[in-house]
Structure formats: structure tokens, C-alpha cells
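for ur thesis appendix - dTTP/UTP pyrophosphatase. copy paste whatever u need, i formatted it the way the template wanted (i think)
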Amino acid sequence: MENGAQQALTLASASPRRRELLARIGIEPARIAPADIDETPHKAELPRVYAQRMAREKALAAADPSAHVLAGDTAVAVGRRILPKAEDEETARQCLRLMSGRRHRVFSSIALLAPDGTLRERLSETQVRFKRLSDEEIAAYIESGEWHGKAGGYAIQGRAEGLIAWISGSHSGVVGLPLFETRALLRSAGFPIG
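the 3d part is after this line
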């Protein structure tokens, strides 16, 4: 096993949520190095495969010979359809209408790249069901602005949590970093986590 006390961790993400989640398990990255990659899904790519590929590519893009690199990606899917990160109100509104009253899946994949090139990966799959949303509820959520830049057009850690009737799986995975899987992955690489 590697000597965790002397290991450094680079987080390949600019997401403050991922940093906050890592802090919950006692991990503070030595460096933040967001990976700038093309996040366009491949034609007919399944959501699970897409999330895994994105996490892997982000880790590889931020490779660091002096540190482990942790990368993650979250994909929200209705059936085989990968929902976009909402960058405008209409996209967020379409996503919320599509998910209203039905289940969707959230795939949260993480990849840990060691300085020697060894790649470890884990995947979390969570099912989430929104209540049937009225036009007024959707409009109020859009007005909040918290959907901006979020996969599927919502943030479970915010106001949207009050609209979710049921969840099965990892709440932290829906936020953006599945803590159970992340902890297991870091421990397997020798990081000292209690």
C-alpha cells in the first residue's frame, strides 16, 4: 500500500460543491486543476458510459506526476437520454417538465489517477423522482436561478430538494461527488481516512 501521509491530491474540478463534499470526509486537495475537455456525449452513448468516460478523461487531462488526481462527473438521464447542463432558463424548464412526476437516474462517476498512471474508478447510480410539478412551481424554481450550470437543471442541495418525492441511492452523488465511493477509492490508494 502507498504511503498516504506523504501523498498529495489534485482535484480536477472547479466545483465548490466537490471541495465541500471532500471536506466532509476530511480531505483537502493540495491543488485545484480544472480539466478543460470536450464534454459532448458521443452519438448513442449511454449515460453510465458517458459519466465514466468524462471522469476518466478529466483525470487524465489533469495528470500530475507528483500527486494523485481525483476527477468526477455527474450525468442526469431520463431513459437513455442524457440531460444537458442548463445554461439558460428554457433548457432548465424543459428538463424540469421532462422529469416532473417521474423517475430519472443520476450517474456520478469518479476516477483517481495515481502518479504512476494507475487509474481507479467507481460509479454511483441514484434514482430520483420529482413530484408532479405545476407550472407555478417550475416558474418559481427557475426564478431562484440555482439551476444554472447544473446537470438536469436542478440542484438537489438547494430548493429542488423540497420538490423531490423520493430518492434511492447517494444524495452526495446527486450533488456531484458520491462520498461512499470516493472514500473507498481514496482508501484503496492509501489515503489515511478514518
